[in-house]
């Protein structure tokens, strides 16, 4: 198998190969950060780290470019850790097994980390390349973007001198982003109420094989949510007296759940009817989602009967609330055709020692849209007897249609490739909105190579798009105007 560094442009793929070799899931970026620091120091570059772990690396302007406006080139260091159920992988210790498949690079059974490893590789390649012409340059690599935007929240004013920010955390060649959605986590807790199990047969019910994906950029694609599909089937089983012992699904609030499972006790007299119902709903789901979920599977396996069950009252309140919980696109934008304005993702369900925990991620281009879904979610789960706390709110990035750097990137794209790019607003949480708090005068834009299946084990990056991303990045840096 050819190494990634055999691809072109060689320098960017060399760094991405190094990034894949060093574990760096969210909140575990220290090893990668140390490697980058050591490398930058060996190159004679100035490096500093702030209190939340962000790295800032400075590269002086090339001769004759000292009077250009200073640029901050930015990416985040962490990746989303998702693996298929049959893949044994410890993201804290194991490297990503990346390989070339036709025109794409992907990974065996796990997320690839092209989000945002590809952008990070581009930043490092700019630092390493001695032939690029650019003005004063700072590279900002932030921490924990995927699970809390810790680095962006903690970025302090005065650390950076640049006036233009080029964010590399976009995932579509031919699109330039000038705004993004804000978001907030909904943390829902049902106090655990258990009773002793009665007579019956134990089963585990699983919904699996779904595509999942990014809960922002993929939310409008109509993919199945394993949590919602599992709950729908369990609600249909109410007349059969099926009792719930444990329920879990999804692992991240910003990934569309690919798998969900429940441990059940089925009355002996209802076993045959329940098996028939599971088969019926497997067929229903496969028909409804045939165009987007070719590998959807509903699996029922007999196992030891559980000794403890959720109380009748908790099971009813929990399943009713999860069935009614909003999920998916709430509203499409009127101002920007084809862009999701407001959405929510029922991302995580866990049965813990003292509670059943549910987490949703609400996104919107407008604070008012986000607040409306917050109210909806709080009202629903309050009626169901659960607590609902909202945490980690981050602002959107309001579009500036008169942005000089957006115009520069658009014109550079046209010069290089003969077409105008689509200037877009992305329904995902870029860090740019938070940066405005510490650096309100930054002129910002976001672009990157084509990535498919981000936040899922289907993640892959398009090799020709990486070449175009690199050409665009270099051209933009060369065209930055005089200050």
From TrEMBL:
GO molecular function: metal ion binding; metallodipeptidase activity
CDD domains assigned: M20_pepD (cd03890)
GO cellular-component term (any): cytosol
KW Iron (keyword) present: no
Domain Peptidase M20 dimerisation: residue ranges: 207-289
UniProt entry keywords in alphabetical sequence: Cobalt, Dipeptidase, Hydrolase, Metal-binding, Metalloprotease, Protease, Zinc
EC id: 3.4.13.18
SUPFAM superfamilies noted in UniProt: Zn-dependent exopeptidases
Required co-factors: Co(2+); Zn(2+)
Reactions listed under catalytic activity: Hydrolysis of dipeptides, preferentially hydrophobic dipeptides including prolyl amino acids
InterPro entries per the UniProt record, alphabetical: Peptidase_M20, Peptidase_M20_dimer, Peptidase_M20C
Keyword Protease: yes
Single GO BP term: proteolysis
Transmembrane feature ranges: none
Pfam family, one: M20_dimer
Family the UniProt entry places it in: Belongs to the peptidase M20C family.
Cited NCBIfam families: aa-his-dipept
Protein name (record): Cytosol non-specific dipeptidase
Organism: Aeromonas molluscorum 848
